[in-house]
TrEMBL record:
Segments forming domain Cytidylate kinase: 6-215
Family, as annotated: Belongs to the EPSP synthase family. Belongs to the cytidylate kinase family. Type 1 subfamily.
Subunit and interaction comment: Monomer.
Function of the protein: Catalyzes the transfer of the enolpyruvyl moiety of phosphoenolpyruvate (PEP) to the 5-hydroxyl of shikimate-3-phosphate (S3P) to produce enolpyruvyl shikimate-3-phosphate and inorganic phosphate.
Organism per entry: Gemmatimonas aurantiaca (strain DSM 14586 / JCM 11422 / NBRC 100505 / T-27)
Chain sites annotated for binding ATP: G10, P11, A12, A13, S14, G15, K16, S17, S18
Subcellular location: Cytoplasm
Protein name according to UniProt: Multifunctional fusion protein
Span within the parent record: 447 to 665 of 672
Length: 219
């Protein structure tokens, strides 16, 4: 029958990726990180397109043929020139420019095509911004994760620094997150049939359990 598709959307650092990864693992299906495709095309633009201020979609997309994906046991893994560049895709220069690239309609269409081709091939849990609204409007389950910006900043820093961040560090990170949210705003509305989960005070394990239970109920 039709492959299973679960959409997990939400703002930056709402825990989408790790939640989606964990849900996918529990359900025995693949995780797709749609943001990784935006990051991959941005990563290539940084080395081929010159000053980011003057990037245009045609030049950015000239690198698209260098990006592909393959199935691993647990995920749909984006590749650049056939190599997994996951760590480089999380670097600050990529993170700083990715929203600019994600605003280009032609880039969005290209990412959507990549992600849809993966979802047509296998059962997937996809995380992103517009998965339940645009990429897979017919997904069997749509979840929208929200969390307080301070809490999102704190969690991201704990992940990055592997220690307890100071209030000053959290304040700075919060500012950056809020700025990225504003740039991403157009893509970040929940689908009408999405289930919103506020994760500010919920442990990741509880979120995952809740989504897995919802997924099992749809099957
Ligand atoms: O999820 P992640 O933070 O890796 O996404 C990086 C960027 O890619 C986001 O800030 C956003 O600009 C863009 N994005 C998007 N739509 C998606 C996934 C990511 O616009 N479905």
């Amino acid at each position: 029958g039709t492959p299973l598709t679960i959409a997990i959307d939400g703002p930056a650092a709402s825990g989408k990726s790790s939640t989606a990864q964990w849900v996918a693992q529990k359900l025995g299906v693949r995780h797709v990180d749609s943001g990784a495709f935006y990051r991959a095309i941005t990563y290539l633009a940084l080395s081929t397109c010159g000053d980011p201020e003057s990037w245009v979609a045609d030049d950015v997309l000239a690198n698209a043929p260098r990006i592909s994906w393959r199935l691993t046991e647990r995920s749909v893994l984006p590749l650049i020139d056939d190599i997994d560049q996951d760590t480089a895709l999380r670097d600050a220069p990529v993170t700083r420019q990715v929203s600019r690239v994600a605003q280009m309609l032609a880039v969005r269409e290209w990412v959507n095509q990549m992600v849809r081709s993966a979802g047509a091939a296998v059962d997937v849990v996809v995380d992103g911004r517009d998965i339940g609204t645009t990429v897979f409007p017919d997904a069997q389950l749509k979840v929208f994760l929200v969390a307080d910006s301070w809490e999102r900043a704190r969690r991201r820093l704990v992940q990055r620094l592997r220690r307890r961040p100071t209030d000053a560090e959290i304040a700075e990170e919060t500012e950056e997150l809020v700025a990225r949210d504003a740039k991403d705003a157009t893509q970040s509305a929940p689908a009408r049939d999405a289930i919103t989960i506020d994760t500010t005070t919920v442990t990741q394990e509880e979120q995952v359990e809740r989504i897995v239970a919802l997924a099992r109920a749809t099957r």
